[in-house]
Amino acid sequence: MQRRLSFVETVVYGFIGLVAFLGIWYLLPATGLVPQQFLPGPVTVVERIVTLTMQPFAGATLPAHIAYSFSRFISGFLLAALIGIPLGLIMGWFRVVDEIVAPIFDGLRFIAPIAWVPFAALWFGTGVGGPIMIIFAGAFPPCVINAYRGAKQVDPQLIEAAEMLGTGHLRMMKDILLPASVPSIVAGLRVAAGLGWQSLVGAELIVASTGVGFMMVQAQANVATSTVMSGMVAIGIVGLIIDILLRRGEAVIRRRRGLAE
């Protein structure tokens, strides 16, 4: 078994990887291997990001586009969690519900979120509903699956003890299944957030009139590669921040429950 890296080692190795990546990125356009028009250097992209924070492009500044995207993401993500987690717990507790819902769910969850884009466009046009629907399609399956797994992994002795005390179904789910399933649910939320954020950007490329994805489409139409890459950097940074926050939350919950990481 490999030893666990210390915090300092993790930071050092991460820094080395980042420097190597930026170095290769800088050298490709600088040496002419890739034309600057198609791959601007990191300095050019950073300068463009700074410009976009102050000057509007495609109707808004970069922070405003990010805010539009994030508000859609939160709406779709919360909707997926509020519906998916209870559904997963119910499927894990009631065998009849599991048998009824599972075939439909298993068929729908293999449809890629981006495949819902034409359907969302027909229903909502370029309004806010389309991207939220697509985010929901990406984030919903992990919420259901992990809540279901959490419910199935509850200690049978806890369930037996609660049943002996005459605990009803609703209280059983609220006081036994839900607390015991929290680590699995939080892990599912982390996966759901990643898929939801990726799905959002794909949706904004087609069915949105604001947001980072929309900004990138407009930049591509104007052959503004540095703006396209600025949007990509913004997407990556926001996605990383979301993942770090959820990962920290998952770690805290696991430590409080005495679970190994």
Number of strands: 0
Q: What is the CATH T-level topology of the largest domain?
A: MetI-like fold
Number of domains: 2
Radius of gyration: 22 Å
Helix and strand pattern: HHHHHHHHHH
Measured between the Cα atoms of the first and last residue, the distance is 15 Å
CATH superfamily of the largest domain: MetI-like
* Percent of residues in β-strands: under 5%
Largest sheet: none
- Overall shape: it is globular
CATH class of the largest domain: Mainly Alpha
Give the integer mean of the pLDDT values: 86
This entry's quaternary arrangement is: single chain
Number of helices: 10
Give the class from helix and strand content and strand pairing: mainly alpha
* CATH architecture type of the largest domain: Orthogonal Bundle
Indicate the low-confidence ranges by residue numbers: none
Q: Could you walk me through the main structural features you see in this protein, from its secondary elements to its overall organization?
A:
The protein has 2 domains: 1-36; 40-257, MetI-like (MetI-like fold). The protein has 10 helices and no strands. The chain has helices at 7-30, 42-52, 62-93, 95-108, 117-124, 129-152, 156-164, 169-204, 212-221, 225-256. It is globular and about 75 Å long.
